[in-house]
Design a protein that fits this description.
Layout: E1 3-8, E2 11-16, H1 23-31, H2 41-60, H3 66-80, H4 99-113, H5 122-126, H6 132-169, E3 174-179, E4 182-188, H7 189-210, E5 216-217, H8 234-246, E6 251-252, H9 256-261, H10 264-290, E7 301-302, H11 320-343, E8 346-347, E9 350-351, H12 354-378, E10 384-385, H13 387-396, H14 405-408, H15 410-423, H16 427-434, H17 439-445, H18 448-451
Parallel strand pairs: 5-6
Antiparallel strand pairs: 1-2, 3-4, 7-10, 8-9
Helix pairs in contact: 1-4, 2-3, 2-4, 2-6, 2-8, 3-4, 4-6, 6-7, 6-12, 7-10, 10-11, 10-12, 11-12, 15-16
Length: 452
């Protein structure tokens, strides 16, 4: 491999000549674990977008000339198009401020911009009016907003619509309800599914509300929140420029000290994602229970046969989509703990656990979005009610006796249920032997369709 010499404040560094990064990127590659998790691509693209906007704003403020502005903007556009994706190799497990990644981006932009003429310096021009300490958290907000809008919110909304379809298809089916995993009074299958739908609706509502906190940006705070080396209006002008790009009403937070030292906005957003994951786990588990069998379990739902379920048992079908999404939900819960713990480390003027936070956030949104898509398309859309089994289970349910309580009292109704169970009789047969009601009275009262 051929090398070129790059220089930073610590001296000379040999950098692979086929790459666009510089001395600080190379030092980071030498000093931190490699072959492990990298800074998310979405975070890199958000930082590049900030650099592009900063060049425009610095030019408007007469701090950067037109030629350098154009070179930086052109370089950023090339990077945003995906031309240089291999130039951002740094790990999550670096400095907690993300400084090395900020400099990685600065160096790549400057080298791309300097292909024809060396006019751009990574610190003096690309990083003008900025610090890693305000750039990195601003990018965290922007990348999370973009990922939520373009990935997770879309998939959750489509899944709510899918549940709507299932509700309409199954509105006439009455089945056995279950509490404590034991037989309970009847419920319509559509009512059971409606709970799943509303879980997602309520989660989506909260997620949309809390993500508004991310529209307040740290940019303009520079090193510690005071805005040193930036003009007073820089943060507001950056928010306006970024608002155009992201098509959002972004704002420069009036208290940059908060934005640099606390990541509670991201904690709140991920808390809503965690709540979504807990409900998705419950929904998937319900389907796991209701489809168990197919002959020796509850068997009221038939899941699609997507792949063979066993290497030894021919014809076995397993709830693989359920298992996949529930594992991902557990991972999201683990990410939530990581983000929450990381936010406790807002030491004085800076939180120094930001790469961990954005890695965990990006991981949760990406995994959940992809998993919800598979869960919906490979399971929910082809989920079928087993009407025969549903009717069989309903007919055998002892909890239909609940409707007799107002007529004969709780104690006598309980006696009928226990007698039926001990003698392996239907409720009607047990009532006939105990002679509490005539058959006609029994049939008039015990009507599942009136119990839902």
């Amino acid at each position: 491999m051929k090398y070129r010499q790059e220089e930073d404040s610590l001296g000379i560094v040999n950098v692979p000549s086929n790459h666009y990064w510089g001395a600080q990127t190379e030092r980071s590659l030498e000093n931190f674990p490699q072959g492990v998790e990298k800074i998310p691509h979405s975070q890199i693209m958000a930082i590049v977008t900030i650099k592009r906007s900063a060049a425009i704003v610095n030019n408007l403020e007469k701090k950067l000339d037109d030629k350098r502005r154009d070179l930086i903007v052109k370089a950023c556009d090339r990077i945003l198009s995906g031309e240089f994706d291999d130039e951002f190799p740094l790990t999550v497990w670096q400095t907690g401020s993300g400084t090395q990644t900020n400099m990685n981006v600065n160096e790549v932009i400057s080298h791309v911009a300097n292909e024809d003429e060396k006019l751009i310096h990574p610190n003096d021009h690309v990083n003008m009016s900025q610090s890693s300490n305000d750039v990195f958290p601003t990018a965290m907000h922007l990348s999370t907003l973009k990922n939520l809008s373009e990935k997770l919110i879309i998939e959750v909304s489509k899944t709510i619509d899918c549940f709507d379809d299932l509700i309409k298809k199954n509105d006439k089916l009455i089945k056995t309800g279950r509490t404590h995993l034991q037989d309970a009074t009847p419920i319509k299958l559509s009512q059971e599914i409606s709970a799943w739908k509303v879980c997602l609706q309520r989660n989506l509502k909260v997620l949309r509300e809390v993500k508004e906190e991310l529209k307040y940006l740290a940019i303009g705070g520079t090193a510690v929140g005071t805005g040193i080396n930036a003009k007073k209006e820089f943060g507001e002008e950056m928010a306006k420029e970024l608002s155009k790009i992201y098509d959002m009403d972004l704002k420069s937070d009036e208290n940059k000290f908060f934005q640099l030292s606390s990541k509670s906005s991201l904690v709140n957003v991920h808390g809503a994602i965690k709540a979504l994951a807990t409900d998705l786990y419950k929904i998937a588990n319900d389907i796991r229970f209701l489809s168990c069998g197919p002959r020796c379990g509850i068997g009221e739902l038939i899941i699609p046969s997507n792949e063979p379920g066993s290497s030894i048992m021919p014809g076995k079908v397993n709830p693989t989509q359920v298992e996949s999404i529930t594992m991902i939900c557990i991972k999201v819960l683990a990410n939530d703990l990581a983000i929450s713990m990381a936010n406790t480390q807002g030491q004085l003027q800076l939180n120094a656990y930001m790469p961990l936070i954005i890695h965990s956030m990006d991981n949760s949104i990406t995994l959940l979005s992809k998993s919800i898509h598979c869960f919906r398309e490979k399971l929910l859309r082809n989920l079928v009610a087993n009407e025969g089994k549903i009717n069989e289970n309903l007919d055998k349910s002892l909890m239909l006796v609940t409707s007799l309580s107002p007529k004969i009292g709780y104690d006598k109704a309980s006696e009928i249920a226990k007698y039926a169970f001990s003698k392996n009789l239907t409720l009607k047969e047990a009532n006939k032997e105990l002679a509490y009601l005539s058959d006609e009275e029994f049939d008039k009262i015990v009507k599942p369709e009136k119990m839902v």
